Amino acid sequence: MKATLDHIGIAVSDMGDALAFYRDALGLEIQAPEDVESQRVRAYFVPVGQAALELLEATASDSPIAKYVARRGPGLHHITLRVDDIAAALAQLSARGVRLIDESPRPGAHGSLVAFIHPASAHGVLVELKQTV
Amino acid sequence: MKATLDHIGIAVSDMGDALAFYRDALGLEIQAPEDVESQRVRAYFVPVGQAALELLEATASDSPIAKYVARRGPGLHHITLRVDDIAAALAQLSARGVRLIDESPRPGAHGSLVAFIHPASAHGVLVELKQTV
Fold first, then answer.
1. What percent of chain A has pLDDT over 70?
2. CATH number for the domain running over A83-133
3. One fold for A7-76 and A83-133
4. Is A53 in Cβ contact with B21 (below 8 Å)?
5. ipTM for the whole predicted complex goes beyond 0.85
6. Residues from chain B contacting residue A123 (CB–CB below 8 Å)
7. What's the rounded Cα separation, in Å, for the pair B3 and A128?
8. What's the average model confidence in pLDDT over B66-83?
9. Average pLDDT of B68-95?
């Protein structure tokens, strides 16, 4: 299939410290944050060409990002690949024995559809698929 | 400064297992591997739009990738941002107190210049800067 890198999710434990690097030291543009209630995270997008960095801060202690940071510390969390037809992509992966976290697409930001692949089937990397509208 | 995502470095412990996912299940194009002697790694680039995934396999037990995999397992390892003037970027970062692994640029693949920023100054992320020629 054809896949384009959409963004890299970065788990952050202290957004002030992260912004001191990306905004103040590197001088990159930081977009207005967006809350993703279902994941209990606040996301700051940082455009870097066609792709973006997504700085992710937990907004509740049971957020997946809070659990990740508690276990591994802040750092690279996931990559998101944009595909034309997410349902077809998930069917293809299932047929090849890939373990999916989301068996069917669920709503993401801005009307997109998203699904996560289990890192056990992606050699240790958490991969998100995304279809935009 | 202006920065464009060049690639994401992914530490691999078993290239066959990684290729089974990226090449066979996802169906992505994998470029011919390239050995980077100075880092004792073999790198497979996987284009995903303007950016690429860089699958990194250690070629010696003292490779930084071998050490990383032994400590944390396979997974996301670093991000590489392309800048127009790497010397100016490093000077700007130094002036703002950012800790650098490479104080001055060193030769990378295809005549590029590269330098790593210490994760302690980048909120836990290993960031490489790259200037192409």
1. 100
2. 3.10.180.10
3. yes
4. no
5. yes
6. 10, 12-14, 17-18, 21, 74
7. 23
8. 97
9. 97
Which residue from B117, B100, B116 is spatially nearest to B108, judged by alpha carbons? B116
Report the amino acid identity of residue A109.
Answer: A
A56 inside 8 A of chain B by CB: no
CB atoms within 10 A of CB B122: 26
Query: Cβ separation of A4 and B48 shorter than 8 Å?
Result: yes
Give the pLDDT confidence of A38-97 residue by residue, as tens digits: 889 999 999 999 999 999 999 999 999 999 999 999 999 999 999 999 999 999 999 999
Tokens, residue B49: 């739009």
Task: Please give the Cα distance from B80 to B66 (Å, whole number).
Answer: 19
Among residues B76, B56, B80, B77, which one has the least CA distance to residue B128?
B80
The one-letter amino acid code at A21 reads: F
Which CATH code, of 3.40.50.620, 3.40.366.10, 3.10.180.10, 2.40.50.200, is assigned to B10-74? 3.10.180.10
CB contact under 8 A, B123 and A24: no
Is-contact B78 B10, C-beta < 8 A? no
CATH class of A7-76: alpha beta
Per-domain boundaries in chain B: 10-74, 83-133
Dihedral sign for Cα atoms in the order A40, A42, A48, A51 = positive
